[in-house]
Structure formats: C-alpha cells, structure tokens
Design goal:
The structure holds two protein chains of two kinds.
Chain A: E1 3-12, E2 22-32, E3 37-41, H1 48-56, E4 63-68, E5 71-72, E6 83-86, H2 98-103, H3 117-130, H4 146-158, E7 164-168, H5 176-193, E8 196-201, H6 204-210, E9 213-218, E10 221-226, H7 228-233, H8 238-243, E11 250-257, E12 260-263, E13 266-270, H9 279-282, H10 292-306, E14 321-328, E15 333-335, E16 341-351, E17 354-360, E18 369-374, E19 385-390, E20 395-399, E21 405-408
Parallel strand pairs in A: 3-8, 3-9, 6-7, 7-8
Antiparallel strand pairs in A: 1-2, 1-4, 4-5, 9-10, 11-12, 11-14, 12-13, 14-20, 15-19, 16-17, 16-19, 17-18, 20-21
Helix pairs in contact in A: 3-4
Chain B: H1 2-35, E1 36-37, E2 48-49, H2 52-58, H3 61-94, H4 99-111, H5 114-125, H6 134-141, H7 154-182, H8 186-194, H9 199-227, H10 231-237, H11 241-244, H12 249-258, H13 265-293
Helix pairs in contact in B: 1-13, 2-13, 3-7, 3-9, 3-12, 4-7, 5-10, 7-9, 9-13, 12-13
Classes of the chains: A alpha+beta, B mainly alpha.
The structure holds adenosine-5'-triphosphate (ATP) and magnesium ion.
Chain lengths: 411, 296
C-alpha cells in the first residue's frame, strides 16, 4: 500500500490572545512507497503524533489530502481505513487477557468478513507467534513486562492485517537494552509482513537504524526526507545536521571568504569547486518518483512558509567575507601537528576502538568539542592543546540567519 | 519491628477507644437486649434469655409487612437507579456543551432536604380537596381513571415510594459514575475506534469493565442504603407507617423503641440484629460476585 500525503496541514485553534493558534503540521508533502518503513523523526512537540493521528483518521486535517494507493481517505473514518495503530502507551485493555486483546479487533468485523470464534483464535495465535508471545496468551497486560506489552500491542495492530501500520514512539517506555532488541524485532516483523509502516520517534539513532527512509520534522515543518545515511551525510540545514548523529556535530562560529572556510582567523578548509547548486539534490532519493514540477512547488512552499528567502544560497567567489556557522562531524577531524584548527585539550575518553577527544575553542557553540579519533593515532595528553585538520565531506557551512546549508558533502 | 508494631497500636488507640465505646459496646448491648425476654427499661430486669423476641417479631404481621416492603423497595430501586444513573452518566460524558449545567441539575436533589422533596412529591401525587395532584391530572387528560397514590392501593403507594427513593439516590450515583467515566483513558476509545468497534460494543466490552469497581461500589452501598430505608417513607406517608402498610424494617425498629406503643427495646433489638444479618449476607454475596467481574 502506497501512502501519499499532500499539503497536509493541521492547525489547532488557540485559546484567546495569550495562546495563538498552533500549526502542528505545516504543508507536509510526502509519498511512501509500498512496503517501506518510514521513520518520522523530530524533537518533542514537532507534530509527529499529529501527523500520525491524521493518517489513521483520529484527527481531521485542516488542509491537504491523504491517499492510500489511489484512494482518497481524507474523509474516511478511522475504522474504514484499515490501519493498525500502536499507541505510545500501548492502550492494551487491562481487563482482557492477551488473547482477548489480540482478538478484539476481529470481533468488530461484520457481514461477510465476520469470523467464527475458531478462526479468530487461530488468527490471534498466528499474530502472537509472529511477535513471539504465544506462551503469554492467558495473562493480563499488567502481568507482562513493558517489552511484552509492546509486542501484544503490535500483534493487536497486525491481527486484522492492516494496509498501513502506524506506531507512535512504541519503544519509549522500554529500557535501553530492550529498546535495541525490540527495534530489531520490529524491523523483522515489518519485513516479514511487508506492511507499509510509519514509525514515530524522537530518538535519531532509533530512526536511523530501522528506517528505509527518515523524515525529519521541526515545529510542524518537514526539514528533510531521505535515506538515513544520505540525510546524515548531506543535511540540508543546521537543524538536521545538529539533530542527527551521536555525539552531535560540532558547530563553530566562522566565516566564508574567497572560497575558504575560516574559524577565528585560521583557515580550516578550502572549497575546491565553487557555486554548487544544492537545489539539485533537494528532492532526490526516496521520492525520486516525484515530478520536477512537484519538487519545484515544494521548494516554493518552503520559501513561502519561512517568509525569508531560504532557498539554496550560491557561493560566489567575490562574495567577500560572510559570517556563517561551520559544522564539523565528530569523525571529521584528524590530528595534525601543523593543523589549522587549534583547540585547548580538556581530556580523552577511551572507548576501545576509538578515542573521544574533548576540547574547547573560543568560536565553538556549546560546551565542549567532541571528536572521534582512531585509537592508534595517539593523543599526547601532556600537551595543553590539540591541532586538527578537517576531513573533506565532513564539514558543512550554514547560513547565519536561515540555517540553510551553503556548502558541504559532495560539493 | 516489634517496637514499630507497638507504636502502631499506640497510635490506633484513640480511634480504637472511640470505636469500642460508640460502636462495639452498643452492638453487644443490642445483641444482649435481643435475647433477653421481656426486658423492662424502668427496672432494668428481664425474665430470662432465649430466642423469644425473634419468634415474636417473626410472627408480628407488622414486621412481616415491613420486611416485604423493604425487600420490594431494594429489589426495585437498586437495579433501576443504578442502571438509569449509568445511562445518564454515559449520556452526560458524551455531550460537550452544557455538560456542567446538566451535572448541576442532576445533582440538585442530593442537596435538597428529604422533606422538601416530599412536598414536591405531594404536589405531584397527593389528592386533596382542591386538586387530584399533577400525575392524576395527567392521567385524566389521557382519559384513564385516577388513583390515590398516597392513601390508595398498596401498589400505587409502593410505586410512589420507589420512584421517590430512585430519585433521591440517583444524583450521588450519577456524580460518582461521571467521574469514573471521565477517568477512563481516552486512548482506549481511540484504539477501539481505529479497530472499528461499534458504540454498544465499546460500552459493554470497554467502558463497563473499566468502571466496574465503581459500579459494584454503588450496587453494594445501594443495597445497604435501601435496606435502611425509612425517612423517605415518612416524608411520603407520615409517621404512622404501620397504618399505611408502608413501614420498613428500620421504621419498625423505630416504632418499637419510640413509636406510639413504644418501649419495646428487646423487639427492636431483635429486628435490628435480623436486619444486620440480612445486610451482611447480601453484602458478602455482592462481594463474591464482584470478585469474579472486577479486574482491579
Ligand atoms: N489537541 C490539541 N490542541 C491544541 N494543540 C495541540 C493538540 N494536540 C497537539 N497540539 C500541539 O501541536 C503540536 C504538535 O504536537 P504533537 O503531539 O504532534 O507533537 P509530537 O511531535 O508528537 O511530540 P512528542 O514527541 O512530545 O510526542 C504541539 O505544539 C502541541 O502543543
Ligand atoms: Mg507524540
């Protein structure tokens, strides 16, 4: 089942003068190919749940359309959409056993779809064995661990064979270990069933590890859509760059002059090929099927909603010195006695294969710079300073005002 | 540990003393009265002990009438008032506008004096020299014969009493049930909606089980309250309930102590003990049933 979202917008009315209306989701355009697992990623309150609730039909969009394959379901009530929803807190019925919980959606079928008790049983057992809880069928939810409850919730969502599976932060109640284990499980179940799945999370690592495609949102606006690795390697703006990656990207205040990236007075990187056109890659990747015209319209929408000209900036050779944000990934540094970036060394954390070097720099935005260095390269901890050179492809330049990327990655 | 225990008992002592003086001692006293034959208040003497008092009241037509009235009242009012309250509370929780107004309206009878409510019922049901009462006027309008609800046939009086009791107890039940309904997590309803559950199935399979502890609480307290029915009957039929054939067990006990004839503490105690065991039995049965249907 292919899911298409067009200009999806949700506004919640405000409560008087002090509380203006909230635009929870703003002009969301996206097409999810059949059978993909999409991770909807963003900080708290960015509109992930709202998007999900609109797709399942519990919330009516203010504007826009939702299509399942070619069928417009925007005004179809939730029960007729054939979606399975896994709630953040699972919402398992506490008075029913696991089996009754899983069977409950089947009991709603009417008319020609009506199942006999035996069929319901066997379907429930099938779903239960898919999530490996066959031995727990007679328990009640409160007699289960968090991870087991979560599997019951998935089984309940899967048992009616939904066309689309929606999951709202299903792992947020689990401890770190179980979370790791369960997300692998979710990936396996999704692959086995081939159901188009949308998975909401605010944990970037989680989204990166299980999604075919990730959608990064902030304040109701989609920031970037793409394969996880592509989005990481090629962030379109400062927000996306900062949101993905642990440890996070190191951001410095810097400037751009004559094709050179400066931090303080030191020239840390020279841009070889100038005048890149980032618009060329804005909409490649997962939604390559989309027409150029659509892409153009979306880019236009991006401009409209920001009110400022946010579009891809071009770097001209004679631009003079412009102040910018310089972002360098932790793995984008290597040690060099003669390196241009001079930081004062604070300490070293050995993590086995890698070493995390903690240092500071006057132009750095934040507490400490964390860089990941190969353990072999050896840091002289007796010195008070450490010098770096920057790896190509790991340094990005962002506009000071809009955060739009001016330079980076493959350019 | 040992020390802590001793402290706990020490802290409980004041409450314990009060309970002993005002609850346990009278209970024992009542029990003793009930088995003392021909106890005389003035001389504080009795003619012996035995089950004579119980035998007497069980052969007293007034007592049997009172038991019959009370039982009828319980059997009719508890299910109807609980069911109706559930319906109204469910309705209230599914409407948004004016919910508070309706809640207030439904709660009014609870804060109104029983006797004032009695007056309203008089206007509705009583035949006087000037009017037949509102209900009779309505009956007339539909061309059916009028009935004297207050001094007329037994079934009519019983009906008025039951309506009265139901009306009096409903506000409290509605209040408790609306708050129980409001505390059911909205996510359960959302989950059910996504799965295409129809309204009645949501009610029977989700809402009702979720609020079942509250419903059982209301049923148990409803039974106890209805067994102790007295003041409502007085408000409707006056103090001479025996004459009206509308006496209740508590009314019988009161009459035996202070009523017209008065001065029969032994019979009153025997009736009180019987009432105590009836309520105890019913409550235990209720609890046993609820254990099989309540999941918390
Ligand atoms: N019913 C509502 N009425 C008004 N505003 C709402 C309502 N629901 C959500 N919002 C607002 O819409 C925005 C997006 O909310 P949403 O629940 O989609 O966030 P989220 O991305 O799921 O966050 P989280 O990760 O914390 O769950 C928030 O600013 C929130 O305050
Ligand atoms: Mg959410």
């Amino acid at each position: 089942m292919k899911v298409t979202i067009e200009n999806l917008t949700k506004k919640f009315p405000g409560r008087g003068r002090k509380d203006p209306e909230t635009i929870a989701v703003n002009d969301f355009d996206f097409e999810i190919p059949s059978g993909e697992l999409v991770g909807l990623l963003g900080p708290s309150g960015c509109g992930k749940s709202t998007t999900l609730l609109m797709i399942c039909g519990l919330l009516q969009p203010t504007e826009g359309r939702i299509l399942f394959d070619e069928e417009d379901v925007t005004n179809v009530p939730p029960e007729e959409r054939g979606v399975g929803l896994v709630f953040q807190n699972y919402a398992l019925y506490p008075h029913m056993t696991v089996e009754e919980n899983i069977m409950f959606p089947l009991g709603n079928l009417r008319g020609k779809d009506k199942l006999s008790k035996e069929e319901m049983r066997s379907r429930a057992r099938q779903a239960a064995s898919l999530v490996q809880i066959d031995t727990l069928l007679d328990r009640r939810p409160k007699e289960l661990s968090g991870g087991q409850q979560q599997r019951v919730a998935i089984a309940r969502a899967l048992v009616k064979m939904p066309r689309v599976l929606l999951m709202d932060e299903p792992l947020s109640n689990l401890d770190a270990r179980l979370r790791l284990q369960t997300r692998v499980e979710i990936r396996r179940i999704q692959r086995e069933t081939g159901i188009t799945t949308i998975f909401v999370t605010h944990d970037q690592e989680e989204a990166m590890s299980i999604s075919d495609t990730i959608v990064v949102m902030e304040a109701g606006v989609v920031q970037q859509i793409g394969r996880p690795q592509d989005v990481y390697d090629d962030p379109h703006n400062l927000f996306v760059a900062k949101f993905l990656g642990t440890p996070p990207i190191n951001v410095f205040e810097g400037s751009l002059k004559d094709g050179k990236i400066l931090i303080g007075d030191s020239e840390v990187f020279e841009i070889k090929d100038l005048a890149p056109d980032p618009a060329a890659h804005l909409y490649e990747g997962p939604d390559a099927g989309r027409t150029a015209k659509q892409a153009e319209e979306s880019a236009g929408a991006a401009l409209r909603r920001d009110g400022v000209k946010k579009g891809p900036g071009r770097l001209a050779k004679d631009a003079g010195s412009i102040p910018v944000w310089v972002g360098i990934r932790p793995e984008g540094f290597f040690l060099d006695e003669e390196g241009p970036l001079v930081c004062s060394l604070k300490g070293v954390e050995v993590m086995g294969r890698d070493v995390t070097v903690v240092s500071t720099h006057p132009a750095f935005q934040g507490e400490t710079i964390r860089t990941i260095i190969d353990a072999q390269s050896g840091v002289d901890t007796t010195k008070s300073e450490v010098r770096y050179r920057v790896r190509p492809g790991k340094i990005f330049v962002f506009a000071k005002d809009s955060g739009e990327r001016l330079y980076g990655a493959g350019e | 540990m040992e020390n802590n225990n001793r402290k706990a008992w020490l802290y409980l002592l004041p409450a314990g003393i009060f309970l002993a003086v005002f609850m346990i001692y009278p209970l024992i006293d009542v029990f003793i009265y009930s088995i003392e034959e021909g106890f005389n208040f003035a001389s504080q003497t009795s003619q012996g002990t035995g089950l004579f008092n119980f035998s007497y009241i069980l052969h007293d037509p007034y007592f049997l009438q009172a038991v019959r009235n009370t039982a009828l009242c319980v059997v009719i009012t508890v299910p109807i008032s609980t069911g109706l309250s559930l319906l109204i509370a469910f309705g209230l929780s599914s409407i948004k506008p004016l919910r508070n107004l309706f809640q207030t309206i439904y709660f009014l009878p609870y804060v109104t004096n029983t006797l004032a409510v009695g007056l309203v019922f008089m206007i509705l049901f009583k035949k006087t020299a000037y009017t037949d009462g509102m209900v009779n006027l309505l009956l007339q309008a539909f061309g059916s014969p009028t009935v004297d609800f207050i001094d007329g046939p037994y079934w009519a009086k019983m009906m008025v009493l039951c309506i009265y009791v139901i009306w009096i107890v409903m506000p409290f039940k509605i209040l408790i049930l609306t708050s129980a309904l409001a505390s059911v997590d909205q996510n359960y309803y959302n989950a059910a909606k996504v799965d295409g559950t129809r309204g009645w199935r949501i009610f029977w399979r989700i809402t009702l089980p979720m609020i079942s502890p509250t419903v059982f609480y209301l049923i148990i307290t409803g039974f106890i309250g209805a067994f102790k029915e007295y003041s409502d009957a007085v408000a409707l039929f006056g103090t001479d309930l025996n004459a009206a054939k509308m006496n209740t067990i508590v009314g019988y006990i009161y009459d035996m102590l202070y009523g017209n004839g008065g001065g029969y503490p032994s019979y009153a105690s025997a009736a009180a003990i019987l009432l105590f065991f009836i309520i105890l039995t019913i409550t235990v049965i209720n609890l046993l049933v609820s254990r099989r249907h309540v999941y918390y």
